[in-house]
Amino acid sequence: MRRFILPGADLSGDTVEVRGDLFRHMAKVLRLKIDTRVQLADGRGCECTGIIREIGRESLRVAITRRRAAAPFNAAPRITLYQGVPKGDKMELILQKCTELGVTEVVPFQAARSVSRIAGEREAEKIRRWQRVAEEASRQAGRGVVPAVRFAPGMGAVADEADHDLRLLLWEEERLTGLRDLLTATPLPESIAVIVGPEGGIAPEEADLARRGGFVPVTLGRRILRTETAGIAIVAILQYLFGDLGSAGPTT
Prior knowledge:
The protein is α/β, with parallel strands linked by helices and 252 residues long. It has seven helices and eleven strands. A hairpin with a 4-residue loop joins strand 3 (37-41) and strand 4.
C-alpha cells in the first residue's frame, strides 16, 4: 500500500481531497486508479488508511476507512540541528539522512564562513524546497511526523532562540571537552540542540555567541568530518544514546 504525506491536512473527516502537486503525482505519475487503497499522513502524527473513490481533472477524493495516531517513542528527545549553510546541494543530503534518523527540526543558518549566501528573496524558495525534501524523506522512512525546516539569519539568532536542555556546538578548535565524555555524564534530556558549521567551520566570534547562548563546545577527537557528515553522525550518536535508534518500537 502506497503512503503519502499531506502536511497540515485535516484527516478528521470521512473523506480527504487531494490537490496540487500530490494529486498530479498520484494520478498522473503513479496513475493510481479508483478503489486503490492508500495511506495518508498529515505530518503531525495522524495517519489514516483510505480508498480512492473519485479522480477528477484537478483533484481526487479518498474515503477514510481507518484512522490512527502515530505513537511517539517516549524515550526519544527532541533534536534540533542548526546547520551552517553548506555549498551546493549538500543541505538536501543532510535533510534526507537526518530525517531518516528522527531529527525533530532542521534550521539552516547563515554562518560567517558559509560560501553559499541566501538572499532575502531566495529564502522562502529555499525553505519550500528543503521542506519538500524532508516530507519525501519522511514518507520513504515511514515517519509519522515531518521535521520542520526554517532558516536563521546567523549565529546570533541561533544563540538567542535555543532553549533546549542540552546544547552542543561541534567545533574543531575545541581541545578540552570530548563529545563522548560529556554525553556519558549527561542525564536523559528532553530536548537537544546541535550546531554544525559549514565547510569553513565555526568562526571564533560565532563560538563566543554560542557559548553565551548556553552551547557547550565539544570535539569529536582526532576525526575531522565534512559538514555533510558531521550533522548526520551527531544525530545518529544522540539517537543511539538517548533516543530510539536500536530500540524496538514505533518511530516519529
